[in-house]
UniProtKB/TrEMBL annotation:
Gene3D superfamilies: 3.40.630.30. It comes from Brucella anthropi (Ochrobactrum anthropi). Pfam families: Acetyltransf_1. SUPFAM superfamilies: Acyl-CoA N-acyltransferases (Nat). This is GCN5 family acetyltransferase. GO terms for molecular function: acyltransferase activity, transferring groups other than amino-acyl groups.
Length: 108
């Protein structure tokens, strides 16, 4: 596997460009709905309140997840929609996503 320089980006949904939002939602549908054959609504209305972590290879989305705020004071945040594009599996991006998300969650 060749060496790649991945970059991480945290954003709220309003700060994503239309292309970045489209890429993130498309990746989630491609993996969760098509590849994993889970015919459930992927767009669930929770993305508005979430913080989104995207890992990019240049301009290409390689992986992403979202962190939802606590539902009540004193409750933990929720990490979800963890996804790695098929072409980027094997680079330990899932591990990187989770490490960054846990570190982010500890600041909330």
């Amino acid at each position: 596997m060749s060496e790649k320089l991945f970059t991480s980006h945290w954003d709220e949904i309003d700060n994503l460009t239309p292309r970045a939002l489209y890429a993130m939602l498309k990746l989630r549908v491609d993996v969760f709905v098509v590849e994993q054959n889970c015919p459930y609504p992927e767009i669930d209305g929770k993305d508005y309140d979430a913080f989104h972590l995207r890992i990019l290879d240049g301009e290409e989305l390689a992986a992403s997840l979202r962190v939802l705020p606590p539902e009540q004071d004193g409750k933990p945040v929720k990490i979800g929609r963890v996804v790695v594009a098929a072409d980027y599996r094997g680079y330990k991006l899932g591990q990187r996503l989770m490490k960054e998300a846990v570190a982010f969650a500890q600041t909330r």
